[in-house]
Amino acid sequence: MASIESVLNTADLPDSPTPRLDAELLLAAALNKPRSYLRTWPERDLDAAQQAQFNAFMQRRRSGEPVAYILGHQGFWSLDLEVAPHTLIPRPDTELLVETALDLLPATPLVALDLGTGTGAIALALASERPAWQVTGVDCIEEAVALAERNRQRLQLGNARFVHSHWFSALPGQRYGLILSNPPYIRADDQHLEQGDVRFEPSSALVAGNDGLDDIRAIIQAAPDHLLSGGWLLLEHGFDQAVDVRRLLADGGFVEVESRRDLGGHERISLGRFDRE
Asked: Minimal CA–CA distance to 200: which of 75, 66, 94?
């Protein structure tokens, strides 16, 4: 039988941008151990069942399937979340939405809304950091709402809830002090849709018309009817869309409009405040 060290040294994932990390995550899952175990016991041999499970995982990864879908979970903020192919995989860039919301608004009571919640990542991260907030997440895919609710129950966050809704459709007359969204923002002809992990993710969570801004336009247009006076709207978007999103926010009556950069230096989110006065 092969040792942990030899298995990792011979693992072959030529098309992955992070081959060693992928192999370690998949091997740890096959062993039902944390990644630290691999470094602590590199000489330990795999038994036949563990080797077979690892080989199966690796074959799926070589076909391009994302590690998060193979393992069924993904870390986001301080949380470990269940994921599934009908939801977008939470990404580190989206943590900027959470960070900005926490920076803008105090820990006093607030009602917040996460549009297109998917796994519930944004809503649950905010609920975990702000116990006084009441956070609602909505999604138009019923399976996503059910998945987000499972994540909520497992994390025991009583100040979050999830609703089946296409944007604001199931929320008539409700107003919030904060609305956030990581909506679809990729152009329909973007070549990246045929590359890497996104090939396996739902196109409904990625694509938004010819310029990638259809859903952002719809949210900005509808948000004022659902914001309390002085409430904030925060939107994630593509690295080259900040100028257009700021213009849409300003044209929509928002003030204090700005964009903030992700760890890669790209303008990743834009935001504005809506004042009814």
From this structure: 66
Contact of 160 with 123, CB cutoff 8 Å: yes
Look at residue 193 in the predicted model and tell me its pLDDT: 45
Amino acid identity of 276? R
Integer Rg of the chain from CA? 20
- Strands 73-76 and 79-82: what pairing? antiparallel
Residue type at position 97: L
Apex 139 CA angle, 210 and 29, nearest 5: 100
Mean pLDDT in residue range 225-245 = 95
| Token code pair at residue 215 | 């859903």
Res. 189 pLDDT band, cuts 50 70 90: low
Distance CA 239, CA 262 (A): 9
For the ranges 92-96, 122-126, 261-265, the maximum mean pLDDT occurs at: 122-126
Question: How far is the C-alpha of 229 from the C-alpha of 224, rounded, in Å?
Answer: 9
Return the pLDDT at 119. Answer: 96
How far is the C-alpha of 115 from the C-alpha of 136, rounded, in Å?
Answer: 9
Q: What is the pLDDT of residue 242?
A: 96
Determine contact, residues 84/143, Cβ cutoff 8 Å.
yes
